[in-house]
Amino acid sequence: MTVRPWLITFFAFAMPLTLCTADEVDDGKLRIICFGAHPDDAEYKSGGTGALWAKQGHHVKLVSVTNGDIGHWQMSGGELAKRRTAESAEVARRLGVTSQVLDIHDGELLPTLENRRTITRLIREWKADIVIAHRPWDYHPDHRYVGVLVQDAAFMVTVPFFCPDVPPLKKNPVFLYSSDRFQKPYPFEADIAVALDDVLELKVDALLALESQTFEGGALGSAEKAAAAPPASQPELRKAWLNQRWERRQGAEAKNHRSALIRWYGEEQAKQVKYAEAFEICEYGRQPSESEIRELFPFFPAP
Question: For a tag site, which of 15, 71, 175, 279 has the least CB within 10 Å?
Answer without folding.
Answer: 15
